[in-house]
């Protein structure tokens, strides 16, 4: 069992991340992963993946009727080659430059979105967004922005439900591969399990915020979180 200092600090970060993700559809990894990694790098990535798997389940319990199943059918297959490419990128390219490149691309995509450059949700764009999410998620631990940007013009419940389904399937794949490769140990499992109560608290605390977002602020909230993702990737690279 992690010590109380870890539980207090990491738990608060996880709870805040869960508040953001339960209302917008992404944000848990953005807020919590850097804190958990700083406090105990040996818990990464298993503990955060376990936590990341639990939150979409809670979201799907309330948003499953709004899932874009057709969209998932095209995006999930794209995640597989993207993840494979991400493994190659991690093994061959400098991780600092990779984070800067991904963060810069995210910020450029946000600027283009603000300037009314809109990408239609089509089978090809879904597959590409899924592949980019697999690539960036594997290489940088932040894989939500490509899918979030693609769905930014959809209604809030549809965004949350679809992203939750996409994240859950992706995390299950990642955990399965880690376990099969012997890279998911008991220490990570205990750490992830200890964070679950904080996830539940954050999910409940995010309910009032969901009502605010649903009142027409979903796109703005998504763009803020995605922009923060890009800035975080660039900032952590420059400080490392």
Automatic annotation (TrEMBL):
The chain crosses the membrane at residues 46-64, 71-90, 96-114, 126-151, 163-180, 192-210, 216-239. It is a multi-pass membrane protein. It is found in: Cell membrane. InterPro entries: TM_pro_TauE-like (IPR002781), TSUP (IPR052017). Keywords: Cell membrane, Membrane, Transmembrane, Transmembrane helix, Transport. The keyword ATP-binding does not apply. GO terms for cellular component: plasma membrane. Belongs to the 4-toluene sulfonate uptake permease (TSUP) (TC 2.A.102) family. This is Probable membrane transporter protein. It comes from Nocardiopsis gilva YIM 90087.
